[in-house]
Amino acid sequence: MFLTRGPLPLAPLWERFFAGGDRRRFSVYVHSTPGYRPDFPPESVFYRRQVPSQVTRWGETSMCDAERRLLANALLDPGNERFVLLSESCVPLTAFPAAYAYLTRSHHSFVGAFDDPGPHGRGRYRAGLAPEIRRHQWRKGAQWFELARDLAVDVVADGRYYPKFKEHCRPPCYVDEHYLPTVLSLVAPARIANRTVTWVDWSRGGAHPATFGAGDVDEAFLGRITNTTTTTGRPCMYNGQPAEVCFLFARKFAPSALDPLLALAPKMLGYG
């Protein structure tokens, strides 16, 4: 599921990734700016895969509304069992068969959730969320999730927690960073892995992670990402065991990164 403002500049890389998979094993859904009309050829995996969309803005509830809209459309296909949220700046770090096996064999959904006692964590809690959610239950995590079907159904059908978030979680409280981590930690704590499968680099500081362009992408860079086996300072766990593979996707990549990614993908990422 791609949540994008408009074009998908890295689509050629995704086309190569999906070319390694059986089309019966995946479906693509794109939520973009209303009025945007992509020009993908009929043979593309992105051809006519847009869902009905509405305007979304960073930091607003509309972002999470779009995520739920993507989930609702993807759930209409009874064959869909795992649901991955991606952006136009995401890239796949492994071949499709490996990613498919990793997700379908997992006992958990990949949603990050941690307790941040500081101003950007518990400091964003709003008293109006009580009694459904108390301050000590407040969690934070990455927006980019992966959900099993039953949890996706619960998220789309949620009429208890989500209305409270829409009413009370306004900037500097951000629904996309707190809703899923908090609610799933409450209702299904044993079902989530407390980590994401999408790598990002927050080391440069600021409200957004680092963006990587053509000058950043080389063998050493991709090797570092694909060999990373820790997240938030802890070893990645997979089905109760330390994981040799931690991340399946990565962001944020600028359009200029496309050519070096295409050149390096066969050697470094296993597809293309």
UniProtKB/TrEMBL annotation:
Signal peptide start-end: none
Membrane topology: Single-pass type II membrane protein
Keywords: Glycoprotein, Glycosyltransferase, Membrane, Transferase
Domain of life: Eukaryota
Molecular-function GO terms, alphabetical: glycosyltransferase activity
A Pfam family hit: Branch
GO cellular component, one term: membrane
Intracellular or extracellular location(s): Membrane
Name of the protein this chain belongs to: Core-2/I-branching beta-1,6-N-acetylglucosaminyltransferase family protein
Species of provenance: Eleusine coracana subsp. coracana
Origin organism lineage: Eukaryota, Viridiplantae, Streptophyta, Embryophyta, Tracheophyta
Gene responsible for this protein: ga11742
